[in-house]
Design a protein that fits this description.
This is MFS sugar transporter-like protein. It is built from 29 helices and 2 strands. With 667 residues, it is mainly α. Helix 5 packs across helix 10, helix 10 runs antiparallel to helix 11 and helix 19 runs parallel beside helix 22.
Length: 667
């Protein structure tokens, strides 16, 4: 049998030494083991548990060595149980001997599947702090939206000239230009200070820079303060989603990480509220509108250290004892913490063999040279770039200007912008329930066509005479429709997606690249729009962004794989699938099947899945575990071989659909 097992593969294509590979995996050379997935070219789309196929004796010996090496001998019995649960999550009630689970452990494992929102208070406190960090981001964005109507007059900037339009655009773009530096600072800051320390530093920068903006005396001083604000925004936006993703369980990771967008939208709404509250205060209105963004930064500065540090960051630093303590706070029961720390360790060991330890410069270069990382980089760049291509920041930055140009008074423009902020916030809530069921990809593919037609409709409204009462009303209506489609799709997905697709070794630099891409193009949008309105008019500008929505839809369809309900480490297998294989599947199998089923309304065989989880039922890990738990619940705690499996709530029956981990909308 020794001749049948291939060597493990580096992501650069080179083979590991066979004995080194076997020693690393903690198994005998003669032990039977599933064929290892090539993480450079996963042609079959297989997702593999690194513990599968290891004998119980070998696994427990590896756990003993793990506990001894990392100072966890005091919890060794629990770690042995956790490792066996991680090896086969469906059969924990069949574990025998000294590792037999007690009733409380069984109940905890069952509850995390059947009641996935029943999580620890520390996890929810962490999510709240991450949400406050997002609100800072949103409020910072909209302070300038209202200030645009008054600070140019104070600084005697003529916005109707090319130079004046450029200065206003540059001041609005300054935070996003500054973020180009802040995003790259996030890697060394995270390395030395951890996730919490980076958030603390960036929150302080955001706090003091908005105070400075409110006290500036020249537009050049305002520009500098807003660049400093951008440095804090970039570091924070690169870290908060990672922090939330690393602390969250896989089954609800998308919903918890998307709190970034939900509360960014809430911050945008609060910013519009602040604009309204101070609009009639005279010449200091713009100072109050810019300075009010300090409010959400204060609780973030004082609250972040009440949250546990990321256990994955501690493990990256070799501090496994602290990592276990963090997991104890983030999970409901010690058995879950023991299972997670050993399973994460196993996956990280595999990543370390594949990726090694490199300098910051080398890690950045590897984002584009190592196939697994390059695919993640392309996917993250696509969703981040699409957020700017869709045109949402045209409205976030300039909605008051757009409404005023449409004939609204200054007060009506503020109220119309307030409505945009409210819609943007309210319609982000559906994503909490859909991002982990329908999936990230499906939400994007559904919402982008609707954003395209509604954006085009906004432009067409400009053809109605300004003297007509319907002009402003129809424009506001279609802007609100656009916001309603943006908020549950392209709103929450980019930061959620980018925070999860990179392996731990490259997560900071990868997220830094993704956020820098997003915020750089936000700066381009901010600088370009005043010129576009002068050169192209409202119809031309909004028509351009309608076309960009269509282009972004095509890019997402071809280059963005689904990531829902996979652990962060299992995504190595998703992004090991070559891009050409993914594109060929979408064009030759998924798209024709979808057209036949939903356009021509012809029923046929279920869609053949692209990804296959290595499990007896061929279903995804979460789906399979959920099905087993439902059977146990129905049969009084026993699983019978003839029992019919049950699909998770709010999801189609994957066994009927034949597409593991995908909905019918998710081509």
């Amino acid at each position: 049998m020794s001749g049948s097992k291939p060597s493990a593969i580096h992501l650069d294509g080179s083979s590991l030494d066979r004995s080194q590979d076997e020693k690393y995996r903690g198994i005998d050379v003669m032990e039977s083991r599933p064929t290892q997935v090539n993480l450079n070219s996963n042609l079959e789309g297989r997702i593999q548990n690194p513990l599968a196929g290891i004998s119980k004796a070998s696994l427990l010996q590896d756990v003993n060595d793990f506990a001894s090496k990392h100072g966890l001998l005091d919890v060794l019995p629990l770690l042995r149980k956790g490792a066996l649960v991680a090896q086969d999550p469906n059969s924990y009630d069949e574990i025998g001997g000294a590792e037999t689970l007690d009733d409380s452990e069984v109940d905890a494992l069952r509850d995390e599947v059947l009641h996935k929102w029943k999580q620890s208070s520390s996890l929810y406190i962490t999510v709240i702090m991450c949400s406050v960090g997002a609100a800072v981001q949103g409020w910072d964005q909209t302070g300038s939206n209202g200030a645009n109507l008054s600070f140019p007059d104070y600084f005697r900037i003529n916005i109707h000239t090319t130079r004046g339009a450029f200065i206003v655009g540059l001041i609005n773009a300054a935070p996003y230009l500054g973020s180009a530096f802040g995003c790259w600072f996030s890697d060394p800051l995270n390395s030395f200070l951890g996730r919490r320390g980076t958030i603390f530093v960036s929150a302080n920068i955001c706090l003091w820079s908005v105070f400075g903006s409110a006290w500036t005396q020249t537009w050049q001083q305002l520009l500098i303060c807003r660049i400093l604000l951008g440095i804090g925004m970039g570091a924070k936006a690169s870290t908060v989603p990672i922090y939330a993703a690393e602390n969250s369980p896989a089954s609800i990771r998308g919903a918890l990480v998307m709190s970034w967008q939900l509360w960014t939208a809430f911050g945008i709404f609060l910013g519009f509220c602040a604009n309204l509250a101070v609009w009639n205060t005279g010449w200091i209105a713009w100072r109050l509108q810019l300075g009010s963004a300090f409010i959400p930064a204060v609780p973030l500065v004082f609250g972040v250290y009440f949250c546990p540090e990321s256990p994955r960051w501690y493990m990256k630093k070799g501090q496994y004892g602290k990592a276990y303590e963090s997991l104890l706070r983030l999970r409901n029961h010690p058995i879950q913490a023991a299972r997670d720390i050993y399973y994460i360790h196993s996956q990280l060991e595999l990543e370390a063999e594949i990726l090694g330890t490199n300098t910051y410069k080398t890690r950045f270069i590897e984002l584009f040279t190592i196939p697994r990382l390059r695919r993640a980089t392309v996917a993250a760049t696509t969703v981040m770039l699409a957020q700017q291509m869709c045109g949402v920041n045209v409205l976030s930055f300039y909605s008051s200007t757009v409404f005023k140009n449409a004939g609204a008074t200054e007060l009506k423009a503020f109220w119309a912008s307030w409505g945009f902020g409210l819609i943007n916030f309210i319609f982000a809530f559906p994503a909490i329930w859909t991002i982990d069921t329908f999936g990230r990809r499906a939400l994007l593919l559904f919402t982008f066509p609707n954003m395209a037609w509604s954006m085009l409709a906004v432009g067409l409204c400009s053809l109605i005479s300004n003297s007509s009462k319907s002009h402003l009303g129809f424009m506001a209506l279609f802007i609100y429709i656009y916001a309603a489609f943006y908020s549950p799709g392209e709103g929450p997905v980019p930061f959620t997606y980018s925070a999860e697709v990179f392996p731990l070794s490259h997560r900071e630099v990868g997220m830094g690249w993704a956020v820098a891409t997003n915020l750089f193009w936000a700066a381009v949008v901010s600088i370009a729009l005043p010129w576009m309105l002068i050169a192209m008019g409202t119809m031309g500008a909004f028509g351009f962004y309608a076309a960009m929505n269509v282009l972004a839809l095509c890019m997402i369809f071809l280059w963005v794989p689904e990531t829902k309900q996979r652990t962060l480490e299992e995504l190595d297998y998703i992004f090991a699938v070559p891009t050409r294989v993914h594109i060929r599947y979408q064009l030759k199998k998924a798209l024709p099947w979808w057209i036949k089923r939903y356009v021509l309304m012809r029923k046929g065989p279920p869609l053949e899945p692209l990804y296959h989880f290595d499990s007896p039922s061929g279903r995804t890990g979460f789906d399979q575990i959920y099905a087993h738990e439902r059977i146990r619940e129905r049969n009084g705690g026993e699983v019978r071989g003839d029992a019919k499996e049950t699909s998770p709530p709010h999801q189609p029956d994957m066994s009927q659909q034949g597409h593991a981990g995908y909905t019918t909308m998710n081509f």
